[in-house]
Amino acid sequence: MIRRRLQKLGEHLDILRKTQQYSRSEFVDDPHLYGSAERFLQLSIEAINDVASHVAVDENLGAAERAQDLPHIFESEGLIGGELRDQWADMIGFRNVLVHDYIDIDRTIVHDAIQNRLGEIERLRSVFARYL
Question: Where does the chain cross the membrane (predicted)?
Answer without folding.
Answer: none
